[in-house]
Amino acid sequence: MKELSSGQIRQMYLDFFKEKGHTIEPSASLIPVDDPTLLWINSGVATMKKYFDGSVVPKNPRMTSSQKSIRTNDIENVGKTPRHHTLFEMLGNFSVGDYFKKEAIAWAYELLTSDKWFGWDPEKLYMTVYPKDTDAKKFWEEVGVAPDHIIEVEDNFWDIGQGPSGPDSEIFYDRGEKFNNLAPDDPENYPGGENDQYLEVWNIVFSQFNHTPEDTYEPLPRKNIDTGMGLERVVSIFQNAKTNFETDLFLPMIHKAEELGDGVKYGQDSKLDQSFRVIADHARAITVAIGDGAIPSNEGRGYVIRRLIRRAIVNGQKLGIKESFLYKLVPVVGDTLKSHYPEVLEQSDYIAKVVRSEEDRFNETLAGGLKLMSEEIDTAKNNGTNMIDGATAFKLYDTYGFPLELTQESAADAGIKVDTEGFANEMQKQKDRARNARSNAKSMGVQRDLLIEIKDDSEYVGYDQLDVDDAKAVVLIENETLVDETKSDEAEVIFDKTPFYAEMGGQVADKGDIYDENGEKVAEVIDVQHAPNGQNLHTVSLLQPLKKGASYSLKVDKAFHSKVEKNHTATHLLDQSLRNVLGGHTQQAGSLVEPNYLRFDFNHFGSVTSEDLQKVEDMVNEQIFKEINVDTTVTDPETGKKMGAIALFSEKYGDKVRVVSVGDFSIEFCGGTHVKNTNEIGLFKILSESGVGAGVRRIEAVTSKEAFDYLNGQENSLKQIAAKLKVSQMKEVGNRVEQLQQEVKDLETKQASLEAKMAAQQAQDVFGNAETAGSHTIITGVIKDSGMDQLRQLADSWRDKKLSDVLVLGTGKGDKANLIVASSDESVKAGISASDLIKAISSNIQGGGGGRPNMAQAGGKNPAGLDKAMSAAVDWLSQQ
């Protein structure tokens, strides 16, 4: 067997098919684009759908790829079996109406057995075929496969319902008797059965039928080839690994986990080996997924990432890893994949930040959750129910962040179950509470129902004109009813054409006025939204009745519209500037474009430094001052992508899209309105940057006059400060403030010194009045005009001089009181704890506190109770 690394094996596969005329397709992102049927890319063919269904004709009908994929339908088996993974790579070769069965079989055999390529022993290979697929059997025999190595299996037919289908042929590698985990007479002990000796490495699907709605199978006019070879399995054969995990794809992460644990080594304990495998697998999956844009959250892909991170953390605990550790495996994963996915290693710093943030959040509650789970498992066993009730499972989910599946796995390991129905009931109660807390939106629901049947056309012309003189009112709605003439003060209108922009993509709707044929103002447009069938639906405040079929002049508020345009174009400049400064991982997560300000949300972990924020602001203003033309191109989505346009939110685009370009600086798909030149924006100023959720940051900013007004206000404030500081020039303000700060610091130092002297003088009187309390001695006293620092210094002095067994001092200023209690080393040994005493007396000052056995302190808001606290201390000590 050749000695090859995983990177060499992957490249050898791709090079082989490149020699056979295939184009090497790059691995697509794990996040599907324009495919709502998939949560993740889960196979190589998933990225080829557009070619196989005929919607896109490939430049070359022969393609090959190594596609990263994620499957999460059986996460709980990861680590427990030799070959279950969440993330895996699928090597594949594809033919769209070109070569078929004969060539696919011949090339597969050549790749596997030729000394130039894999060089596997042909005697180790077994092929399964569909019984009725005599051609496949014949072609295998023609390339040299012995008849007794070809096995007919009834299940060898690939069919997922309506659509392309056909027989398939699976290839198995005989790993030898040492891998045999079944009895000789076990029905699964054969090539094609569920066993460890005969390992399936490749599946070749011959897509030759169309499964019709009538449940018949008609021949496809163009026959296709779709194959899948699991890289992890092939590597395990080359590297003679017992499981996929003992290969160079996983061992680096396992060895790193060994370093981070409490001395446990992989291979010493089968149960702990499962934890090593879970960590290695999940580290790979989350690293690659986050690199492709997934962010931990409570739903969809984000929930999968969060679940994998938490599952890995819990398994890390089993290895004795108590602190955040998973983020340390990110660069290790990147190193294992760098030959084919260099971008993973390049983004490792960002990915590690995301993982670290999620780890830290979970670790804050992990100990409590694990304790509760352990207690509930013990309870379930002791009371004989062998069941964790739904309320507890929901508490683990809601309070401690444990996904239900994680609770189920832990329970299953202990041999008990979870009341999933009860969990579902608790979850529904929470949803009902949230729903009841929201405002009632029934009216919108009725409107939507009403508008579904309205098919009248409405053309938006606002990109080119803001006034329309002959717009016909084709639909009037009043009180959720279609009318021919309005009678109330507010109504909704659809015109056959309109210059009013409907709110979309974060840009607010236009406002303006409506005039009749005599030029009289009859209504004001206060909002515009898209109706279900795409028309612009105007909400209007009426001055005069509107009539269906009548023509009106529509005039957009140009000043309002212009301000919105300035801010919208500024968001494009801001978006690209953030990418340039913070890195390509930043993605828009929402926006709001108002006339007076803009708000922009983006994915990024950790706050943006003031230095980076300034760089972003400067970069935006640089584009404004360059006076760059803003051009809009109407084209098809594919052409737009080739132009380099950024598609936001994985939106669905129609046949035509608008590509907005700000020179070469920013190119985005966008249906909004924009300035003609960046100089119209005038000025850009960031007002704030903050976090609004896990991994999501928000910038609020202003442009044009609002930016000028903001800076002017800042200048006026600075002038006022300069006047109060009595400096003649504003540039001197900073130096004057530093001088004042130093003066204040000097005064505070002098004050502290005086307070210390006064406290020491008072302490001389206090320290000379030790009294007996039971079998102990105690000194108590209230020190005037002091602070906690002085009390601590006095306590240190008392301890050095060994003046009594216990010391209790107090001080008060205004409405604040402080107490300090000290206990000598001998008293601590005798059971006199300063922490216990402070808790017993702090209620007298309406406060609380704590500390160590030899020193404790408390704060409160009732200085008048200090004398009572002193008496209470003597009483407490007398009883000890």
UniProtKB/TrEMBL annotation:
From the Swiss-Prot or TrEMBL record, state where the protein is found. Answer: Cytoplasm
GO MF annotations in UniProt: alanine-tRNA ligase activity; aminoacyl-tRNA deacylase activity; ATP binding; catalytic activity, acting on a protein; transferase activity; tRNA binding; zinc ion binding
**Domain Alanyl-transfer RNA synthetases family profile as annotated: residue spans:** 4-713
| Enzyme Commission code | 6.1.1.7
Annotated GO biological processes are: alanyl-tRNA aminoacylation
The record ties this protein, via CDD domains, to: AlaRS_core
GO CC terms on record?
cytosol
Q: Does the keyword Aminoacyl-tRNA synthetase apply?
A: yes
Q: What's in the keyword line of the UniProt record?
A: Aminoacyl-tRNA synthetase, ATP-binding, Coiled coil, Cytoplasm, Ligase, Metal-binding, Nucleotide-binding, Protein biosynthesis, RNA-binding, tRNA-binding, Zinc
Q: What's noted on cofactor binding? A: Binds 1 zinc ion per subunit.
Where do the annotations place Zn(2+) binding?
Answer: H568, H572, C670, H674
What is the predominant subcellular site recorded for this chain? cytoplasm
Record's Gene3D superfamilies? 2.40.30.130, 3.10.310.40, 3.30.54.20, 6.10.250.550, Bira Bifunctional Protein, Domain 2, Threonyl-trna Synthetase, Chain A, domain 2
Keyword Amino-acid biosynthesis attached? no
Top enzyme class: ligase
Q: Which cofactor does it need?
A: Zn(2+)
A Pfam family: DHHA1
Q: Which residues form a coiled coil?
A: 723-764
PROSITE patterns from the entry? AA_TRNA_LIGASE_II_ALA (PS50860)
Q: Which reaction does it catalyse?
A: tRNA(Ala) + L-alanine + ATP = L-alanyl-tRNA(Ala) + AMP + diphosphate
Q: What does this protein do?
A: Catalyzes the attachment of alanine to tRNA(Ala) in a two-step reaction: alanine is first activated by ATP to form Ala-AMP and then transferred to the acceptor end of tRNA(Ala). Also edits incorrectly charged Ser-tRNA(Ala) and Gly-tRNA(Ala) via its editing domain.
Q: What is known of its domains?
A: Consists of three domains; the N-terminal catalytic domain, the editing domain and the C-terminal C-Ala domain. The editing domain removes incorrectly charged amino acids, while the C-Ala domain, along with tRNA(Ala), serves as a bridge to cooperatively bring together the editing and aminoacylation centers thus stimulating deacylation of misacylated tRNAs.
| Family to which the UniProt record says this protein belongs | Belongs to the class-II aminoacyl-tRNA synthetase family.
Q: What is this protein called?
A: Alanine--tRNA ligase
Provide the species name.
Lentilactobacillus curieae
